Amino acid sequence: GQSLEQPSEVTAVEGAIVQINCTYQTSGFYGLSWYQQHDGGAPTFLSYNGLDGLEETGRFSSFLSRSDSYGYLLLQELQMKDSASYFCAVRDTGGFKTIFGAGTRLFVKA
Amino acid sequence: DTAVSQTPKYLVTQMGNDKSIKCEQNLGHDTMYWYKQDSKKFLKIMFSYNNKELIINETVPNRFSPKSPDKAHLNLHINSLELGDSAVYFCASSHKGGGNTGELFFGEGSRLTVL
Questions:
Q1: Closest chain A residue to B94 measured between Cα atoms?
Q2: Strand partners, B93
Q3: A contacts of B40 (beta carbons < 8 Å)
Q4: What would the pLDDT profile of B22-53 be if each residue is shown by its tens digit?
Q5: What are the C-alpha distances in Å from B15 to residues B76, B78, B82, B83, B84?
Q6: Of the partner residues A42, A95, A96, the one whose CB lies closest to the CB of residue B90
Q7: Which DSSP state fits B52?
Q8: CB of B70 closer than 8 Å to CB of B52
Q9: What angle do CA A61, A19, B42 make, to 5 degrees?
Q10: Chain B touched by A106 (CB under 8 Å)
Q11: Quick one: how far is CA A38 from the chain centroid?
Q12: If exposure means fewest CB atoms within 10 Å of the residue's CB, which of A22, A34, A86, B101 is most exposed?
């Protein structure tokens, strides 16, 4: 089976940096993704790590360590609009099943 | 142009009724999915289809019957609705098996409320 663990809530102030961790247990693994979901909206893809290391996309970076079954999403220069839920997700080796973590609710304060 | 569109956006119905949700994608993707998001925001895969063929059925009750008339459409029919079916249902699509990055493109969701 597959399971992912991430914190349920994180609070940070505008302009700060926040890291959302994700640990996973999977029977097969084909990469770790991150999605953002605003209240009432659809999940939207942020990043993907297929190999170990850091991927950077603007203010967002994502990291993966396959040996530790661990990854994180780093959000820099936080803005109020970053207040949302963030989900880590793993794709199984077949590719047709993506499992999501329970989500981390990020609150950005002024 | 909406990439993944699903209708209706809202459904309110009584227990025991039958309802359908339609989904269409204009991205040219081969793979489509249905996900259920409950009130705690847990996003759970229900089905995945590739080129009209069922690939994944994640132990969903057989009251739920997906149908893919072509690779751009994946509809979901639910029979004998129960209170526990109340949730937001998201349709998604991707390149075959998620492509290189596994990116899923989600529709805006259909909020189902069963009374």
A1: A96
A2: B32, B105
A3: 102
A4: 999 999 999 999 999 999 999 999 999 999 99
A5: 17, 11, 5, 7, 10
A6: A42
A7: T
A8: yes
A9: 95
A10: no
A11: 14
A12: B101
